[in-house]
Amino acid sequence: MRPSIVSLFAIVAVSAVTNTAAQESEYAGFDDPFRIYLGGFWASVDSKLSINSDILPPLPPVDVEDVLGVEDSKGVAWGGIAWRISQRNMLEFEYFALKRNGGRSDTYTPPIQVGDTYIEGGSMDTYYDTAISRLTYGFSIIRKERSDLQLKAGLHIADLEAGLQLNGLVCDPTTIPSVPPGCPAASTGVESQDVSAPLPHFGISYAYAISPTLAFNVQAMGFAIEIDDIDGSIIELDADIAWQPWRNFGFGVGVRYFNTDVSAKNADLNGSFEFEYLGPTLYVHATF
């Protein structure tokens, strides 16, 4: 009996060593508790803005890039941190901020409406700032040495702010006429709108280790909500390839797509923001 027990322990010990070696031979980033990444994101942006009047009927949103002359592409810093709490539980935070400015001088047909103001012609100096924070919990429903399939849930917080300085042929409730045509030459202060929209999201991700130093990851998240006088939706699609030639340090390249649409009529937001970006990312990352 004793030799068989010894043999059993030997088999268990050899199996444990073999499994450990197998784990260590796979992509290190799957098992390290923490992963920090920082890099650049080059976004091509398409956005629309509506600042509604309190007394006039709302009009369709204005194209921010084409009509208001705001930059349609820009490079920004981007990064985040992921914490693998256990083999099946993960928490991740990601953040980036995109600040854009622009301006245009033209005659506008039809006139552009911004709040209670119309502009028939002249100049508009515009800014459109966006900051996206994302906190996501992931649960691994399939967790293997080379692959990880997760269900995800969390919160996107989109901080959106836009403003316009108008100069030219401007109509507002204080001018004669108060509506086009024939707006008088005038200038206004900044017509602005800002909103912080916390939008929940649900999704799925899949990561696969091609080799001990190379892995790819894809994920999709989204949600739509309509509560009282607030209507919002969100979509995010990501794909990455990470190369980790050193035990705790590596590089990554990927692509990001994001779309959010928030509209409301209340004290915080009387109008709508539509914001969409697509572009590549390049980053460094560390695991430990």
What shape does the CA trace take?
A: elongated
The CATH architecture can be given as Beta Barrel
- Work out the count of structural domains: 1
Strand/helix succession:
HEEEEEEEEEEE
Count of alpha and pi helical runs: 1
Approximate strand percentage = over 45%
Largest sheet strand order:
1-3-4-5-6-7-8-9-10-11
Cα(first) to Cα(last) distance is: 45 Å
Share of helix, binned: under 10%
Mean pLDDT score: 84
In short:
This protein is mainly β and 288 residues long. It is built from one helix and eleven strands, in the order αβββββββββββ. Residues 1-25 have low confidence and may be disordered.
Overview of this structure, please?
- Helices cover about 10% and strands about 70% of the residues.
- The protein has about 290 residues and is mainly β.
- It has a ten-stranded antiparallel β-barrel.
- The protein is elongated.
- The two termini are about 45 Å apart.
- The N terminus is likely disordered.
